[in-house]
## 1
Amino acid sequence: MFFKFHKDLAKVFSILHNLCNDSIKLYLVGGFLRDSLLGRESKDLDFIIYPFSYKILEIFSKSIKGKIFPLDEERKYFRIIANFNNENYIFDFTPQEGRDLLEELKRRDFTINSVLLEINNFKILDPLEGIKDLKEGKLRVCSEHSIVEDPLRILRAFRFVSNLGFKITYPTEKLLIDSKKRLKNVKGERVHNEILKILKSSFTKEVWVRMHELRILEEILPELSSLENVPWSKPHHTNPLFHSFEALGKFEYIYYYLDRLFPEIFENLIDYLKEEVYSEFTKKELLKFSILIHDIGKEKTFLSDEEGKVHYYGHENLGSLMVEEISERLRFSKKEEDFLKKLIKFHLYPSFIFKDKKGNKLKIINKLKEETIGIMLLFLADQFSLNPSEDLLYFSKEILDLYLRKKEIKPILSGNEIMRYFSLQPSPLIGKLKESLIQAQQEGLIKDKEEALKFLERILSNEDNR
């Protein structure tokens, strides 16, 4: 194994080395070393100072033109952020809290994050054999108390599984199972962040399946895990829980081959999925989460007809409402909540037009508006998990291509022009008139300003006659 890091960090390590002396010990530890040893680049560096010295932080921050932020002044946790070549680097500094270095490392989560680089002499220290576990692809706790100290590490374990492809050792897996009830004591926003960090990985389906098998999923998303007991019939070939896992897997497959499946509009789709919704999380992670929970309304809506066929009438509407409870529990932002609610509420809508061969495809765009891409990708993943076909892919391409072309259309008349021509005051009516105008332009009913004025006259006349 070898170290991989940005060349600018060589200067950083040199500065820190010169700040050390016989009475001050400085250790680099954690994710940066793990990623470096795996040949990955990282911009987050964690240091232990013993004994703690704020003066060293001040000198270091000034040397790299950084800025110091307190994370927890009482516990002496500080962060320095600096920019190298237009990229932000984060340097976190904490004191040694254990009685000695070994006890300090045993308080960490997993051995792969316990490797130390002593900045004083640039020697690697690895008392818990983290490098061996890195080589063997094993995820092992630093001590039997690691999970009890912070139960969120249960979810973090699965993040490392999905991100690194490592295997959790049997003793560690048993600790995760024994401690799973403690997840209920973890703050919702921390669980929220860890769920979305798991979904940042390329392929996560099997991770969610394993979390369910170990009965860990029910501690964080009981609405999802309980779908295992909901009956099903054709066209489904399994219960709604495993259908949801399958749908997520299909999306991850679609995303991996996005450039081949949608070569003409690939960049537009990527731009949409990269849009930030909250903090570091994008529409891609939120879309994947919506696929996981898109059928949560089925538990309370299923019924069987005389022929034994199972129906879930209105599950999309109930599922959308259930998002509010999940959002409150896991502290989702309002923007995240609104995004999830819309995707789940309308995830069936494209199928109505797909089944009706003469269906007006513009109805989908006018109904879904700015989330047309997200809902069409959810629809495609959902349907592919049932019965993948070329027709589904062709239909989705048609809708997405139509949406991207039509969204560039601007109304022939602006809001101010509409108010001036018809002597109207500012009100929600102006927005509705503009929307109707754009829809008529999309359908080719209006080509110039004269036709636009006549069109709006008819609408306003109908409004007056009501």
## 2
Amino acid sequence: MLKSSQSGFTLVEILIAMAVMAIGSLGIAEMLNNHNKAARNLDMGVARSGFKSAITGMIQNPANCLKIVGAENFNNFNAPNSSIRDPYKDISVLRGLTAGSTLVTAGQPLPGNSKLIAGQIRVEETVAPGPPVNGITKRQVRLIIPITKAGMANGERNIAGDSFLSDITIPMTLGIQANGTLDGCSPSATGCESENSVVTGDGRCKQVACPTGKIQAGVYSTAVTDADGLHQVGDVVCARISSHPAGLVDGNPKSCDRGYHLDNTGQCVNTTICPGQVQKSVASDGASYCCVHLSANSPGSSNDAQFNCPAGTNVEDAFGGAANSNAMRYVRVVGTTVEASCESSSGCHAEANCCRQYPAPFPTVISPRQCDTANHFAWDTGQQACVHQDPAVCPPGGFTASSGMCNKSVAHAAQCNCTGCSFSADPNPSNQGGECNVSAHY
């Protein structure tokens, strides 16, 4: 008789297996929890970077910079303390770009992101300010925005703590009026409204470099105001990369775009500079390649036609012809001489283009001044000056202008008259050439 046998896990083995499974489950749960917290931390880091990029981009525009921090009064900075090493000013809110809007408030979540909270916003002075210039004190500061992470819902700590390793820091320059209100604001650490300027010994901002996309074309020798604002003596002159030096306007270098040149009014134009010739092409600096078409016929019974292009020109497109189409021998160019030779004297013809490069003018232009029109002065573009317009004010009848006087030679003083004019006779006609002089018009 066979005996039946039973086999299986003992109770101890089952308990051990259950313990192992429980431990494994706990490990997996912890891994999932850490993964979720890491993903949350990553999202907050990306959001913080995005906020920093956004506010930095806004402040790049001085007008936006003024809107964002302009609501504060910057008359009094707090003294440094154990945690803040430089003079500072707390800011409660950064304004938005539209009236009444808020960009971020200290102690409150960032707009549209409840996981990030702004700490105490402040500006810290980085360089001791100099004396006011025209009532404005320039203060070089850094805008500091601490960002913290919102707490976990279950009370657990965020990965790497609730604070980021560094605050959002943006260098700025504030122009502060005597009453503490802002006159100007820019994202620059140079003490000027542009990163391309530096503060000089007299407290003014001197432009020493050009912004991206422009090149230095010289230095201002006279102050001038244009669409970019006031340029003072010693500031660099900036021009587009595609431009070239074209002349001087009021003593300052002037550049024009490719293919343009400066005219005598100080404007960049692309008009031809060819002297009565055809413009074939224009160089990048505004120089023109100009051509004149010349031709010659064989004289009398001669079989050849010949002419010379002006010295210094290039001979182009030379060709010839004969009255008898089969009688053409050759057309050749020797230096600047064009020759055509034919088999018979029935008629030979030669023609070609004589071309040369004419450099673009490099004029020195003085901008039109406000002339004393009441005393008959007007701006003369050719002379670049206010010129007295004598002919315009002298009466008809033989009077000529000279040194601000209208003169007319007469035989007798009694002939000094003019309808509607006030003339006085020369008291000694014999010594003064018998002239009648008038100065009432001047």
## 3
Amino acid sequence: MYRLWAAIASTVVLLALPGCRGRETGTQQTPLGCIPKNVKSLTASPDGTHYAYVLGRGDKSVVVVDGAEGQAYDEVGEGHPLISPDGSRVAYAARQKGGWTMVEDGSAGSVFDGLWAESLVFATDGKRSAYAAFRGDSSRPQWARTYQDRLRWVVVDGNQESAVFDDVGMPVLSADGLRLAFAAGTYQPNMAFGGPFATVNRIEKTWAVVVDGRPGHSYGSVGRPVFSTDGKRVAYAARRGSKWLMVVDGKEQGDLYDAVGVAVLNAIGECRPVFSPDSRRLAYQARRGDQWYLVADGKPEAIDGPPIHVVLDQTGQATVTLPPLVFSPDGKLLAHVAAANGAAWVVVNGTAGPHYAEVAGGGPVFSPDGQHIAYAAKKGETWCIMLDGSEQQTHYSSLSSVLFSPDGNHLAYIAGQGERSVVVANGIRGPECDRIVSGLRFQDDNAVEYVALRDNRLYHIQHLPPQARAR
């Protein structure tokens, strides 16, 4: 097994890093502000430009952005506020007496009877956003609602509303922010049960993917669409009858399966298809009976099934997630996580790596130059970093968010140590914190930056690159 991985590693240059146990030095910490206790949804941009959280004021809630309180609302959407990927914008769903609105950069938008807070998405550059909202009385149970008083859903793109649908899925923006897609459901009245006055449970719902305002073919169900890296292609899973297939650029492709991604009784979830960085290749996982397949370029290969993570919410509804499929930057390598008999391992182009108790949920990552591959895995009671086929043991109780620098020569990750968290970059351990609030980001000079909470104070922390520490 190790020889197989050595063959893969021979195509890359071994990345030499200091010991992964880490030592604490070489960081700059800039205080951003004090955070009151018992705040909700604390979030921040990695560069520390913006931070935000929800604060209770009597029976009201206010969102605090960069220390300044906004307008008081009756309620703020679960998991909000959100900060755009580039750190330039802050948005949150809020409820007042007239209904729900999306507040973006302090300005409230249109008011709706309901708003799907989790559906808010930003373009990578933050210039475009979209979310789903509805009009209609949602207090009535579905079984008591007639066709005529059903909920009317729209996707809001900036200040523009889409056509009205009976249901919608989470919107998706292309990487360049120029294209928008989402799943849309439409009820089809069954004339055998009273025509247009039939109750909702007596009619069928069909689904189509709407791309740039144009609905595609109707199916019994569809998955969340995915754009290619260049934004020119779109793919999604669709159910026809009891079988699933893949739709690419509006055309059905490949074989029929019992599930594309995952289908678990009384659970929702999927493993979305993945395009290669050059947008030429497409891969996804599918299941027929108990047999799983990795389908790349339309060709299925039987594989061991992926580890399936199930999370139950307060109502007992299960959400299922699978580790993502990952292409190398040149599209020649395809990695996935497999699991069987209590073990999990990473497979690259059909070659299996060593078995572990668990592989971190983010799965493997390739360096931007394609020369390295790394992932976090659990071995015994602690976690290790697997880098280019070489295992580097740590003493941490958890590892996550493995990240390469743009030049591929530096590695960083978040480590758990009891109830505290630290960031390790090039073997250099940052200060212990109560929580890492933002994601990690490499700067152009290979310094790692992030925002963390320690003793109710927020800090912007930078791990200085080796050349800066040597001065």
## 4
Amino acid sequence: MEQFLPNFTWRSPTRVIFGVGRLADLRGLVDEAAGEQARIFLVTGRSSLRTRGILQRVLDSLGEGKVTLFDRVSPYPSPELADAASAECKEAGCDVVVAIGGGSVMDLAKVVAVMSANAGRAQDYATGEKAIDGPGLPFIAVPTTSGSSSEVTMAAALWDLEGKRHMGLASPHMFPTVAVVDPDLTMSMSKTLAAVTGMDAFTSAIESYWSIEAEPITDGINLQVVQMFNVNLDRSSIQGDIESRANCAMAATMSGIAYSNSRPNACHAVGIPLTLYWGVEHGQAVGVTLTTFLRWAAPGIPHKMPALWRALGVEDLDGACERITRLMTRCGLQTNLSGLGMEETDLDTLVANTRWDRTRTLPRPLGQDDLRGLIQELL
């Protein structure tokens, strides 16, 4: 009997502060993490926070004289940008790292925080040439989108778009110290940004659910995440009201907590080359194969499927795929690869550059011929 009992290790050390207006808690959290006289390395995107007046409000609260601002983060940050930011953080003698932004901002800041105590280049850690041996500076993550879930995960993505390479750093030492999830910060997201970021977290939850790494805690969280996005994602994208945006912000954070323990797999494995070679935005890139891989995975875990159908409000696999397709269409997302600029002649490139290491946690083995057939059906 013992082989049928759950056996797992759970990781979720990040303290989560959630609620409208909770950005106001940031100063106290910084003081708690690093002391009242701490020097702060603040990482943001290039313009959004400044344009909306949020940046100045944060600087006034933290004490502008104590802040070193790094506001040069663009989507898909490179190892070189991480190195530049890390050098500035060290030169300023900072005691704590704060990130306010989307997944790219939080990922880069996460690398800066851990590299403060781990010498070398970001690329060395991303390629595995060096190991992260210990914790870095305290790190407070404040998401402004509802999808990357980086505010509660131990991983960060770096990109070499010119060299067509995706690199990931992951270590238990990289979990943020605190996540401040203030849904008010998501209210400026465009329809497209709300859709693609939400689709990222929605896809991650379903991948995490069908993974062979899944266990009872991740299953419970992921089913709740699926239900929340099923009800709120199109409303968050189309209407953009505070209730649906708050529910998507909560669901995205929950998704990250679950997938830190049962990782996203096949959709992300194919999504990476879609971004690198065809410039497809990440959430769209992972979401476009969701129904395809759901059909592949479902026969491997038939006992888990009824609960997923209930979370989606459907009765069977066909209903689930129809529901997901309808949801994506309502959000303005593409549901086939031809709509993303792919042609049949591109199949070899996509299959060859799929991250095969990430497909190993599927409940059914997937080979190159299998993938080729699945992708062909999506064209």
